[in-house]
Write a structure and sequence with these properties.
about 475 residues; Rossmann fold; five-stranded parallel beta sheet; about 45% helix; binds 6-O-phosphono-alpha-D-glucopyranose; G6P_Isomerase; gluconeogenesis
Length: about 475
Amino acid sequence: MNRYQQPHWQEEMKLKVDFNNMMKGFAGPVEGFSKEDIDALAVKISEAHQNMKEKRAAGEMDWRKLPFEQADVIKDILETAQELRTWCENFVVLGIGGSALGPLAVQTALNHLHYNELATEKRGGPRLYVLDNVDPERVAALFDVIDPKKTVFNVISKSGSTSETMAQFMIVYQLLRDKLGNTYAKNMIATTDAEKGNLIKIAQEEGYKTFIIPQGVGGRFSELCPVGLLPAAVCGIDITELLAGAAYMDQLCEEADVYRNPAYIRSTLQYLAMERGKNVSVMMPYTDALKYFADWYAQLWAESLGKRKSLTGEEVFVGQTPVKALGTTDQHSQVQLYVEGPFDKVVTFLGVSRYRQEVAIPKVFNHIPGISFLGGHSLGDLITAEQMATEYALMKAHRLNMTIILPEINAFTIGQLIQLLEIETAFTGELLNINAFDQPGVEEGKNATYALLGRPGYEAKKQELEGRPEKKKEFII
Ligand SMILES: O=P(O)(O)OC[C@H]1O[C@H](O)[C@H](O)[C@@H](O)[C@@H]1O
């Protein structure tokens, strides 16, 4: 029996949403929304719920099945991870966007925060590197610090054709062949679509271990399939707990009543905020462990909701610009803007009730009142007080904000958070009447890259790129 079936564990580890001033009457002054505002959307909400059901039945949202229906895949992942942990010192993800941000977010949340700096015997597993760019300096620098023979490269691409990932793959392929000869395939794992793209074909021809990204699971919704589960398992994260947390949240989000469904209520409030011109959604965790969750959320929210056309073809130009912030760090950088700048933001804080480790501030310098008040508290007290103070400052300035509270950071709560934000994003897409699962704006850029690099068959596209220089610009200054 896994833990999501245990009621005490569920309740104790359940994520909570504090609406701060998003809802009138809950707390604080006036800016938030009333029950009447929400109830006025009752028809829309019930249609959106119905549409979600239909899409799920049609297999368009199979990421919701991931916490429940992958027993064979999980077995394969766990066995592979166990074998790799006996010899692999570095596990390198080659991927970008949805094929990189989830592994990075989960790793940072659930493994040691200075993980990659620890000696192997203390870590009890390989270092994880997520190479999500084609910056030549960064790629070259990786090869300075890893021994390719003791490294496994996990090339991840849903489409199997993303230029950045394929370029990285080609570089690693050559490197491994040069260093390891014909045995190189054991250092390569491919995670991709069962049919689409070049990667699956190469993987099969070259004999790589392969994991499949299921149909109906788009890149930015793929953390809980082998995309995220394999790197997590290899690095010692309890993926069963991660999935149990997601399953638990998924069940809570089956609820049709908006007031009882955590994803629907957050979606509805965001939708109302967008209607009032709140075009920016800030995600601000008060823990370094969730720093990269803000990056993962940024892609999820931006690509899913930033759309020109509605489902019925009208030009709507909707979406909310996601902003990544970190508490307390960005209190000293961005919060001035949030409190006094334009009234165009909704801030979501990610708070933690119990930090996994505490550090006491010693009672020293008692004769200096300006700092002696800190002595005797813990850093956990300080960061929590600063989070509450920022919520208060925003409320006082009538700025919309809400808080998702994790009882503590563990695989079960992280699984919940992933599922909550994915369902919230999909449901917001329904409220906005747009397709939350495509990204036509990005495809255009991908095609333009092919054209600029002269990929055969894209000459026609190249012609379309009016005004784009075909050669590197001569910079004048
Ligand atoms: O996983 P891949 O097919 O390589 O795609 C990687 C990324 O490519 C594009 O930028 C898409 O807009 C993203 O949604 C996707 O996550």
